[in-house]
Design goal:
The complex is a heterodimer of chains A (304) and B (181). With 304 residues, chain A is of the alpha+beta class. Chain A has 11 helices and 12 strands. Chain A has helices at 3-23, 29-42, 45-53, 62-72, 74-91, 95-104, 141-150, 161-171, 226-229, 236-242, 289-296; strands spanning 110-112, 123-125, 154-158, 180-181, 189-198, 203-212, 217-223, 249-256, 259-266, 269-275, 280-285, 300-301. In chain A, the strands form 3 sheets. Chain A has an 8-stranded antiparallel β-sheet, sandwiched between helices. Chain A has a two-stranded antiparallel ribbon with strand order 1-2. Chain B is mainly alpha-helical and 181 residues long. Chain B has a single domain (3-162), classed as Winged helix-like DNA-binding domain superfamily/Winged helix DNA-binding domain (Arc Repressor Mutant, subunit A, Orthogonal Bundle). Chain B has helices spanning 3-25, 28-44, 55-74, 95-114, 117-128, 133-139, 144-162. In chain B, helix 1 (3-25) crosses helix 3, helix 2 (28-44) packs across helix 3 (55-74) and helix 6 crosses helix 7 (144-162). Chain B is globular, with a radius of gyration of 18 Å. The N and C termini of chain B lie far apart (42 Å). The chains are: A alpha+beta (304), B mainly alpha (181).
Chain lengths: 304, 181
């Protein structure tokens, strides 16, 4: 398409929409407002009251946050890549092998000998041994058994989004990581129920369930602690979603906080599974993957 | 914010949201449903909007997004051959000019109706709502480059659909449209 064509189509479409806008008969906005008020009463007005009473917060979507982050730190990322390239060239190590060693922290001491004056110059690059990371101490079988025996996981069930949100506020501090949730039912769905799975001292999982007019469910689950995951009632598709699918499609185009997801499908139900730092997030519904990704993009971090 | 302020927001932005929905679906009843659902979503998420001045653009994007979801789900769009359904003809003193314009409008409308909902969405946001690439990108949470290429593709499809074949400008009949009614 030439620039001329582009300008022509630009003008054509602009004029078309302007003309149509002036011609289109609109329904009575007052009548629609009356209908809307009835709809408000039916659709959890608490939710809306809470939303509009709270001050505007920095709550842009996850994806736009990622793009903003990428934009802000692209210079640093470029500098890091350049440093990596220089070190790689000096070491003469294949890039894949080196990247693997850097990532696993097993980069050996490197010796690079200057080529210009072999006798006089000898550069030694030494990598610092990696700092021991404060990994969580593994519990012995005895300890795990003790925890299981003494701390029973309780399921708290909520029939309104407002009540669930209030409960999340109370329990968020018990979660070992960020809590993801859907602040409003996705288009075409209504809120069914939500649940929090917890012991007295920690939060083990959360779950939101929505359904559409035909009764099809959309389920969002986030599990924090593996030993207690089995306590959360599994469903057919969710049980499949708990396992990393062997033939699942890996995609990086959509992600939460830069984390890729796995897709699994069973009995017409699709599950997107995100592995986060301290938890696994699963979104399941009988809809196409693209729409499910679209819903995943609406996920919000509780308290942000 | 009290109910009066909500009503003010609703009535102020109702025409724009309604038109956005109508240009996406071509059906009055569906557009009314989209408007209601859109405002419901918008008011429930009002705290997420950083700049209240952008409420109009934001709510239009919610409407177009919801319309895309709806169209994809039902695989349905309504096209009216009847220009009066859109609210009547533009008045023109010259009957032949008026007829030609009417025909042109019908062709553009049918070309737009043939597009995928996502293509139509980008055109409605760009040419009806007159949003910039960056505005669309930030509201659809997509990189500006993606929006640019989507816009290019949609524009090119419109150009091809409006191009006369074999030098003869044929009217697109309703039967030829690959859409389910």
């Amino acid at each position: 398409m030439t620039r001329n064509d582009k300008n022509k189509i630009d003008r054509l479409l602009l004029n078309y929409y302007r003309e149509e806008a002036s011609r289109l008969n609109l329904p009575d906005s007052q009548r629609c407002w009356q209908d809307f008020q009835k709809l408000l009463e039916q659709n959890s007005p608490d939710n809306i009251d809470m939303a509009i009473s709270s001050p505007p917060a920095d709550a842009v979507t996850l994806k736009s946050r990622i793009y903003r982050f990428a934009g802000r730190y692209r210079n640093i990322a470029a500098a890091a890549a350049a440093c990596f390239l220089v070190v790689m060239l000096l070491s003469g190590m294949p890039p894949v092998q080196m990247l693997r060693q850097v990532l696993t922290g097993t980069l050996p001491e490197m010796q690079v000998v200057g080529t210009e004056d072999k006798a006089a110059q000898e550069f030694v690059l030494q990598t610092q041994p990696p700092e021991p990371s404060p990994a969580p101490l593994p519990l012995s079988e005895k300890e795990v058994f003790a925890v299981k025996a003494t701390e029973e996981v309780r399921e708290l069930v909520f029939n309104s989004l407002q009540a669930y949100r209030t409960a999340l506020r109370e329990h968020a501090s018990l979660a070992p990581g960020k809590l993801f949730y859907l602040a409003a039912p996705p288009g075409g769905y209504t809120f069914s129920r939500a649940a929090i799975y917890k012991t007295g001292t920690s939060l083990h999982g959360v779950r939101q369930e929505f359904s559409d007019a035909a009764g099809n469910k959309l389920i969002l689950r986030q599990e924090f602690a593996a030993p207690f995951a089995a306590k959360i009632p599994p469903e057919t598709a969710e049980a499949a979603a708990q396992q990393q699918p062997e033939t699942g499609e890996e995609a990086a185009a959509y992600s939460i906080g830069g984390i890729t997801y796995a897709v699994s499908m069973e009995n017409g139900l699709i599950t997107l599974q995100y592995s986060l730092d301290n938890s696994v997030l699963m979104l399941t519904a009988a809809i196409d993957e693209e729409r499910l990704r679209h819903i995943a993009a609406q996920l919000a971090v509780f308290g942000q | 914010m009290d109910k009066d302020e909500l009503e003010k927001l609703y009535t102020q932005h109702f025409p724009r949201v309604y038109r956005t929905a109508f240009y996406m679906t071509g059906d009055h009843q569906t557009s009314e449903d989209i408007v209601q659902e859109t405002f419901l979503k918008a008011f429930a998420n009002l705290h997420k909007l950083q700049d209240r001045q952008k409420f109009g653009s934001w709510v239009s994007v919610i409407a177009s997004n919801y319309a895309v979801d709806l169209l994809r789900k039902h695989k349905k769009i309504f096209i009216s051959d009847n220009i009066e359904e859109f609210g009547g003809e533009a008045h023109d003193d010259n009957p032949s000019t008026s007829l030609e314009r009417k025909e042109n409008i019908r062709e553009i409308r049918e070309a737009l109706a043939r597009l995928e909902p996502e293509d139509r969405e980008i055109l409605v946001l760009k040419y009806f709502n007159e949003l910039s690439i960056n505005e669309i990108a930030s509201m659809l949470a997509a990189p500006p480059g993606t929006i640019k290429s989507r816009l290019f593709r949609a524009r090119d499809k419109v150009r091809l659909l409006l191009q006369p074949q074999d030098g003869i400008k044929r009217p697109i009949t309703k039967e030829k449209l690959p859409l389910k009614f």
